[in-house]
């Protein structure tokens, strides 16, 4: 089985997130995509975060594709760090081929994530294009450090076969929506479930 891991705050989730998930499903040949709603983000202000239950409910309402599984299992791990989450997933699912999915807008700060090099070395990574971030793979610390591990986009469908570190940049349709702009446009409008 080939599973994409798409984690984020999803604060709120929106059609741009769904577009990334659908591109990943199609271009990477995934059997499933785990839409992992994080309980918190160490790089963001926790006061700006809607309750986890609200973000899960909104994600489930948006992601109706039966191959997308909305989960918040990170809450039970007691750690907000992706490196620990991926190590946990890897240890519990030895027969599954995982690919970490991230939007290109996340490349700018990826090197600030705890143990970011460990993340790159755990599973192959698919970076999905986002508006204003198309060229970010040329300048980010992660992509410069691991340029040698880059897989051509034409081979995205076999990325799961590559041992980590391996990454690719996937171009495709892009949505200009962002959680930040949605929160700024509708302050206080996120549900309190």
TrEMBL record:
Boundaries of every Cytidyltransferase-like domain copy: 5-184
Keyword Ubl conjugation: no
One Pfam family it belongs to: CTP_transf_like
An example molecular function term from Gene Ontology annotations: nicotinate-nucleotide adenylyltransferase activity
Catalytic activity: nicotinate beta-D-ribonucleotide + ATP + H(+) = deamido-NAD(+) + diphosphate
SUPFAM superfamilies according to UniProt: Nucleotidylyl transferase (SSF52374)
Domain of life: Bacteria
Keywords: ATP-binding, NAD, Nucleotide-binding, Nucleotidyltransferase, Pyridine nucleotide biosynthesis, Transferase
EC number, UniProt record: 2.7.7.18
Pathway participation: Cofactor biosynthesis; NAD(+) biosynthesis; deamido-NAD(+) from nicotinate D-ribonucleotide: step 1/1
EC class (word): transferase
Function, in words: Catalyzes the reversible adenylation of nicotinate mononucleotide (NaMN) to nicotinic acid adenine dinucleotide (NaAD).
Family statement: Belongs to the NadD family.
Protein name: Probable nicotinate-nucleotide adenylyltransferase
């Amino acid at each position: 089985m080939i599973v994409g891991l798409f984690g984020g705050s999803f604060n709120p989730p929106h059609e741009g997130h769904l577009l990334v998930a659908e591109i990943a499903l199609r271009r990477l040949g995934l059997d499933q995509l785990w839409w992992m709603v994080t309980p918190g983000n160490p790089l963001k202000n926790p006061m700006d975060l809607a309750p986890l239950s609200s973000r899960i409910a909104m994600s489930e309402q948006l992601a109706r594709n039966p191959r997308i599984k909305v989960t918040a299992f990170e809450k039970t791990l007691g750690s907000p760090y992706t490196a620990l989450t991926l190590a946990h997933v890897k240890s519990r699912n030895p027969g599954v081929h995982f690919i970490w999915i991230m939007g290109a807008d996340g490349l700018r700060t990826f090197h600030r994530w705890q143990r970011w090099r460990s993340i790159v070395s755990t599973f192959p990574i698919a970076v999905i294009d986002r508006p204003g971030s198309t060229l970010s793979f040329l300048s980010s610390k992660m992509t410069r450090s691991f340029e040698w591990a880059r897989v051509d986009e034409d081979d995205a469908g076999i990325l799961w076969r590559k041992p980590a570190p391996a990454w690719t940049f996937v171009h495709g349709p892009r949505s200009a929506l962002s959680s930040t702009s949605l929160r700024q446009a509708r302050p206080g409008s996120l549900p309190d479930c």
